[in-house]
């Protein structure tokens, strides 16, 4: 977690805020091998005020101690600030830039003489107020233009309603609105004239009436030939036993359409009963699509069909394909295998005030994704101890993981508070191309556990600006930032890899 710095020079307009602070219970947590203080550390006299978008929280300790607050919109917190008056009895922190009309959770922590004391989860609510700033329009993109239609996409930095003014002159003359308050927008403008220059203005307005806009233009194609092109899907995976992404309990279904579209995958264990479905998650229509199927049974044949829908509302169904999940011996014959010996043994199980559980493996913390996985490792909830986010933050993340059955090694990339992506490390040469990698850091985990992580799809190297999409064992370079954004990908999902690693993927023709 990064330390958050705040700027107090800006004056914010805010109505009075109602503070609802839950009862603060204090738990003393002594770390192993700590030196017991002669006087037990205590937190008391907790006070808080919130005004003009800034919360001021103070507390006292009975002896000189450090101070810290963890806070956020959930009990996982995610943000923290250290008290600058270290080793003091009086502690105070300022939280600025609070969101409007939301509930915040927070926890106070102090340390002294090897002893840690922290409060249980506490709550305050902010009231609605205007920051006086208009929505910021960004990533305005025009991914698709035909003779009679255009697709526009953009984002705002806050919830807003949007309109598009357009016409053949800068006076516009026509308007198209998007209903509801959103942060990601897409609009299809139809009934345009071929081979014609159009001007447009995107206008965003927040709930307080603050408005911003951006102006641009486009030219339609000379005819409507592309409008009449029949929607088709291709490059469907998985359809062979060599396709990547098939695991014991999950797989990625991917495909490419010849025009912007959304899609749904229908699947089941019988071609006559595709009774389950997963929709594409992206808000923007894209050319390349994928969905992640989970909670599948190992060593089982599944059938699936893709249904795509383009910007004209036309649909196309693919033939029915099939794939088979991998065979998991420990699942089929559990009596013949001691599953506990397959995996790296945990030296401890911990959780914070939230629901996330972490196992300590080789002095590294590894997140246990769900209760079923916890049972898979043979762990019991009785062995889980509660600790502070600060204590866990001092333990490095497990980033090198090995499949207990296949012995394949993966790099686990953290891309958000609860978002992890995995990337296969195919051989020792690639492993050694990363200076930070140590063989002793590899931890062995269950195949079902690995199936819960999506694969890394976007990569680049340190010395190049080129970004690649990984699909089916090949890398496809993006030709421009516009192409990248038009397909709905996020820059934050890009993983930097070594040149040696990148070279193991063939380049798509």
Helix-strand blueprint:
Layout: E1 26-30, E2 43-51, E3 54-72, E4 79-82, E5 88-95, E6 103-112, E7 115-119, E8 122-125, E9 137-145, E10 150-167, E11 174-189, E12 197-205, E13 211-219, E14 233-237, E15 251-268, E16 276-279, E17 286-293, E18 301-310, E19 315-317, E20 321-324, H1 329-332, H2 339-342, E21 348-351, E22 357-361, E23 364-368, H3 371-376, E24 384-386, H4 389-393, E25 400-403, E26 409-416, E27 419-425, H5 428-432, E28 443-445, H6 447-450, E29 454-455, E30 458-461, E31 468-471, E32 474-477, H7 481-486, E33 495-497, H8 499-502, E34 506-507
Parallel strand pairs: 21-24, 25-28, 27-29, 30-33, 32-34
Antiparallel strand pairs: 1-7, 2-3, 3-4, 3-5, 3-6, 6-7, 6-8, 9-10, 10-11, 10-12, 12-13, 14-15, 15-16, 15-17, 15-18, 18-19, 18-20, 21-22, 22-23, 25-26, 26-27, 30-31, 31-32
């Amino acid at each position: 977690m990064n330390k958050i710095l705040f700027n107090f020079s800006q004056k914010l307009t805010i109505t009075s805020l109602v503070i609802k602070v839950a009862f603060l219970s204090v738990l003393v947590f002594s770390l192993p091998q700590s030196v017991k203080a002669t006087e037990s550390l205590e937190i008391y006299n907790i006070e808080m005020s919130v005004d003009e978008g800034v919360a001021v929280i103070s507390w006292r300790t009975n002896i000189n101690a450090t101070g810290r607050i963890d806070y956020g919109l959930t009990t996982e917190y995610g943000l923290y600030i250290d008290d600058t008056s270290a080793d003091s009895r009086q502690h105070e922190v300022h939280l600025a830039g609070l969101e409007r009309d939301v509930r915040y959770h927070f926890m106070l922590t102090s340390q002294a003489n090897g002893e840690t004391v922290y409060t249980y989860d506490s709550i305050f609510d902010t009231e609605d107020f205007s920051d006086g700033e208009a929505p910021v329009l960004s990533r305005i993109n025009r991914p698709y233009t035909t003779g009679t239609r255009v697709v526009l996409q953009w984002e705002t930095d806050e919830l807003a309603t949007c309109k598009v003014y357009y016409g053949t002159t800068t006076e516009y003359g026509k308007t198209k609105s998007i209903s509801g308050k959103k942060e990601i927008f897409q609009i299809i403008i139809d009934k345009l004239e071929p081979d014609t220059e159009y001007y447009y203005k995107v206008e965003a307005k927040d709930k307080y009436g603050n408005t911003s806009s951006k102006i641009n233009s486009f030219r339609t194609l000379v005819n409507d030939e592309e409008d009449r092109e029949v929607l088709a899907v291709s490059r469907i995976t998985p359809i062979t036993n060599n396709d990547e992404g098939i695991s014991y309990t999950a797989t990625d279904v991917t495909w490419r359409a010849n025009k912007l579209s959304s899609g749904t995958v229908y699947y089941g264990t019988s071609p006559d009963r595709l009774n389950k479905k997963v929709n594409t998650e992206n808000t923007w229509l894209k050319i390349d699509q994928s969905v992640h199927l989970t909670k599948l049974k190992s060593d089982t044949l599944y059938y699936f069909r893709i249904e795509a829908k383009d910007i004209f509302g036309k649909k196309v169904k693919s033939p029915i394909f099939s794939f088979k999940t991998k065979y998991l011996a420990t699942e089929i014959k559990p009596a013949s295998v001691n599953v506990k010996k397959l995996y790296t043994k945990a030296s401890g199980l911990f959780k914070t005030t939230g629901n996330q559980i972490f196992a300590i493996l080789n002095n590294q913390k590894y997140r246990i994704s769900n209760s079923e996985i916890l049972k898979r490792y043979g762990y019991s909830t009785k062995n889980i101890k509660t600790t502070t986010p600060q204590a866990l933050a001092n333990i490095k993340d497990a980033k090198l993981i090995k499949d207990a059955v296949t012995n394949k090694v993966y790099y686990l990339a953290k891309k958000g508070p609860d978002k992890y992506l995995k990337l296969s490390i195919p051989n020792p040469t690639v492993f050694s191309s990363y200076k930070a990698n140590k063989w002793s850091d590899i931890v062995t985990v269950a195949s079902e556990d690995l199936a819960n992580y999506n694969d890394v799809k976007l990569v680049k190297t340190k010395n190049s600006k080129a970004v690649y999409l990984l699909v089916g064992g090949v890398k496809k370079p993006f030709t421009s930032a516009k192409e990248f954004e038009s397909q709905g990908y996020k820059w934050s999902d890009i993983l930097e890899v070594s040149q040696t690693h990148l070279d193991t993927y063939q380049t798509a023709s």
